Amino acid sequence: MGRSLVRAVGEAGDMRLAGAVGRGDDLPADCDAVVDFTAPDASLALAGRLAGRDNPPALVTGTTGFDETQLRRLEQCTERVPILWSPNTSPGVNLMLDLVRQAARALAGYQTEIAETHHAGKRDAPSGTALALAEAVAAGRGAALDAEAIHSTREGEVFGEHSVIWEGESEVLEIRHRALDRMIFARGALLAARWLVHQPAGRLYRWADIDRPGDG
User: Fold this and answer.
1) Is residue 16 included in any domain, yes or no?
2) pLDDT digit string, tens, across residues 23-71
3) I want to staple 159 with a disulfide (CB 3.0 to 4.6 A). Which of 8, 31, 106, 179 is the partner?
4) Which of 119, 122, 151, 162 is labelled catalytic?
């Protein structure tokens, strides 16, 4: 993701790259926002370092795999740092979450399953996006989705494919998203950063909090 983020900043006419750093590296002293795609422990360490600054920059993190305790620790850092956490920074996936909630509400009696495929190197399974989709299903139909209804595959160099399938007596509905390259996540993270730099600390923001483009 690092190279994709550097490229996306270079394409953006309203941003300047302050630095590209790895885990444990010193952060630039002067920046408005930090974008993070690492692992839970690294993200928490980063958030803690930012919280120790006098005037901390905003933090957008697309890291997945947080457990409940780690998420609470991330929320604690929001007392000092504006933080937005999204397990998927693709605008299309976040639209998909809205559509899934609507479909789950309308098709509450249908058998529902989620299928996701990622590259062989992805460690967490199910993916953070698959879990978010399961939450959207539960919110729509008012009942949690069984863990057995989420199917994960790790193979090849797949950037990310997610499907939610509803099967009724005489029909099947499928909502599907496929990422073609990592740039969609990088551009989405920058979209989130543009919004987040104008928000106060004090809460953990999510993608749904972002003003829609064109809304002002």
Assistant:
1) yes
2) 778 888 899 999 999 999 999 999 999 999 999 999 999 999 999 999 9
3) 179
4) 122
